[in-house]
Design a protein that fits this description.
Bound molecules: pyridoxal-5'-phosphate
Strand order of the largest sheet: 1-7-6-5-4-2-3
Radius of gyration: 22 Å
Helix content: 25-40%
Mean pLDDT: 94
Shape: globular
Order of helices and strands: HHHEHEHEHEHEHEEHHHHHEHEHEEHEH
Length: about 425
């Protein structure tokens, strides 16, 4: 498709049917694909020919939806995974091995924190966590000889910190390593991290991209901008012959597609976290309205944030859309049109009042989820982040009284009325 605007890409990118083919991307619910000769099949295995042969490695439905996300993020290649967790795991593992070091923003999703701080540590990969608003001078000091990647969330879940992407990208590139960012919350509708220097973008598509909370999924998009061969010694998996694939050198054979091709042919082959084509189909349908839903999420959240701000039962409100918010200045730079529908606030009376408030809500449901059409609410300290001690919680920007409210796309008046009646019950 020639260069189009985001709304058009949401609706149409990724799938262009030929004459007589289905208008809507078909659900190719088949594990395998038929060929006339074994020679052709052998060529597919050797990556000499492009084609589908086994859905763990590639599937037309999954590819069409991945390509839509690639178009939205302005990347060159992408892949879907079975969850957001798998996306971040693969994005990192594709370039890391035992003995390597990661620099990560400390303001990240609880699952990703556990992945980096514990699971990858058990793999022999160390991490240093830094404040998302760290100065470039201080960030530069954290690099070690074995640092291979910098990671952060563009707008963190649930602490809602805006990552200074340019600072992180500049520091990463000065040290010859890529910046990977998780762009789940803003989505490309509000922020396209590649334009600010990020090299690889990940998503939990479970959230706004799907939008209706009907399937878990993830995505990884490569900008194609990072020059792996310039730092050959740092990334041998991409720049040296891969013995598990007939000695292929991914950067030589696949150019800008090297990173995603390696992920497909080695990580998907060996670990296999693919989405089902059915789930990818739901994701594709969700993406068709992403450009309509995101502004509505933001408007509703802003209206609720302003209401909460004026209520004396509330001790604090975090939402980058509020002018006096600590993140507002960075948000004006990176998220000028809006951020997301998630807000965080504290209720006077701490943990006890927070629980009573949540139990009194009628329209907003208490669920372990964020970022879908229905308004919902969660208390991270007792759920998603319960593995963290108080010190770690503080570092991740979460206080024990923090309530995370994911404002849906219902009518704002009804959402506010529900919150009001719950506050009145305190
Ligand atoms: C939810 C979430 C994840 C994990 O995604 P799953 O789809 O639940 O595996 C990762 N990063 C962020 C920012 C998230 O919000």
């Amino acid at each position: 498709m020639t260069k189009k605007n985001l709304g058009t890409l949401c609706v149409q990118a990724g799938y262009e049917p030929k004459n007589g083919e289905a208008r809507v991307v078909p659900i190719v619910q088949s594990t395998t694909f038929k060929y006339d000769s074994s020679e052709q099949m052998a060529n597919l295995f050797d990556l000499k020919e492009a084609g589908y042969f086994y859905t763990r490695l590639a599937n037309p439905t999954n590819d069409a939806v991945a390509n839509k996300i690639v178009a939205l993020e302005g990347g060159v290649a992408g892949i879907l995974t079975s969850s957001g967790q798998a996306a971040n795991f693969y994005a990192l593992l594709n370039i890391l091995k035992a003995g390597d070091h990661i620099i990560s923003s400390s303001a990240i999703y609880g699952g990703t924190y556990n992945l980096i701080a514990n699971t990858l540590k058990n793999f022999g990969i160390e991490a240093t966590f830094v404040d998302p608003n760290i100065s470039i001078e201080d960030l530069n000091k954290e690099f070690k000889k074995n640092t291979k990647v910098v990671f952060g969330e563009t707008l963190s879940n649930p602490s809602l910190k805006v990552l200074d992407i340019e600072t992180f990208a500049t520091a990463a590139h000065e040290h010859g390593v890529p910046l990977i960012v998780d762009n789940t919350f803003p989505t490309p509708i509000f922020l396209r991290p590649i334009e600010w220097g990020a090299d690889i973008v990940t998503h939990s598509t479970t959230k706004y991209m799907n939008g209706s909370a009907n399937s878990v999924g993830g995505a990884i998009v490569d900008s194609g901008n990072f020059d792996w061969s310039k730092y050959k010694d740092k990334f041998p998996g991409l720049t040296e012959p891969d013995e598990s694939y007939h000695g292929v050198v991914f950067t030589e054979s696949f150019g800008k597609g090297a990173y995603i091709t390696k992920m497909t042919t080695t990580l998907m082959r060996d670990l296999g976290s693919i989405p089902s084509p059915q789930n990818s189909f739901y994701l594709g349908i969700g993406l068709e309205t992403l450009h309509l839903r995101m502004p509505r999420h933001f408007e509703n959240a802003l209206a609720l944030a302003k209401y909460l701000k004026s209520n004396d039962k509330i001790s604090w409100v975090n939402f980058s859309g509020l002018e006096d918010d600590s993140q507002h200045e960075l948000a004006q730079k990176y998220l000028p049109k809006g951020s997301c529908g998630v807000i965080a606030f504290g209720i006077k009376g701490g943990r006890v009042a927070a629980t009573k408030f949540m139990d009194s809500l009628k329209l907003a449901a208490v669920v372990t989820h964020v970022a879908d059409a229905r308004t919902c609410v969660l208390h991270p300290a007792s759920t998603t982040h319960r593995q963290m001690n108080d010190e770690e919680l503080k570092k991740a920007g979460i206080s024990p009284d923090l309530i995370r409210m994911s404002v849906g796309i219902e009518d704002a008046e009804d959402i506010i009325a529900d919150v009001e009646q719950a506050l009145n019950s305190l």
